[in-house]
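ok so I'm stuck.
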Amino acid sequence: MRAFPAILGALGACLALCTAAGAFAAAGAASNTTGGDRGRAYARQEPFQKRPFPMQYDGRWIGDAVAYGPHRDGQRPNGPSPSVAELRQDLDLMVKRWHLLRLYGSAEYAEDILMVIRAEHLDMKVMLGISLAAEDRRDSSGAVLETFARTREANRREVEAGLRLADGFPEIVKALCVGNETQIFWSGNRVPTERLIEIVREVRARSGVPITVSDDFNYWNKPESRVVAREIDFISSHHHPLWNGSQVQDAMAWVRKTFSDVQAVHPGDLVLISETGWATQRLDTGDQGKYMKGRVGEDEQAVFCDSLGAWLRVSRVPTFTFEAFDENWKGSDPPGEVEKHWGLYRADRTPKKALSVGK
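replied:
not stuck anymore, here's the structure
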């Protein structure tokens, strides 16, 4: 997550990728979760029927959810990973408060998490991520300057892992999220729209679970986003008031307003909030100093979470609080870097003040 202010929205519109009309071969869509034809171009399924993403299980609403990254100090993606015992400890902490998790990738630790949930009979459902990275570098006209074969292979591993896990853990994996912040103009992880839709169509053809794409509100609030929205079952939108200049006392009003703006562009679609939160530390320099105006700290995070919880109890908008645990591998090196400090638990798994409110 690295959200930038809404005032840059005009630039985002100018840099919006071309729509993907006419870019796909008309091949039939087979339902097949093992293998798959990697050279195949999957057509949009017709008739296209939106798959529901239920929020009620055993009479309980589970939409007050949390985003989970499991890496502790000394661990990082594509490096040292958490042990099964560490994952079990995390899940035991989280299941006391949340019953729906968002995971960001499928190829590394996700299978261990799902196995623990199953083995321990934990009351937990998962929106499972398929992580995507840029497969090439392009100039301002969209011409490809350089291709990244290893990244394309890594993306393929993510797709295959996500499909395999959704098929293997149907009682736990209730949705697949294809990519994270791949369309918003400021992302360093952009994937061309037509390529994203190719992957979405393949994943949806080969899986029976609902499919979504997660991106910043400042993408979903633009008409250009409809070309992706028509390919998925529901919209997953990031709303970060801190990155957009809000003070904590105004943060929930900003979340409600930007959420309504996304709904207005996509009437009739399910829209959920796949990230929102309030950090407990930040830097006063760089983009953090430029765009963030609100005070940060455990008191401020607690105020935000209390306000968010009150809204969720009334609105029943499915929302993933960002995030469960601080992750010190993230962002730049200074200890105060904001990306390290969104957790409701510290990296050592001790709770912050926010966990005493709103639950």
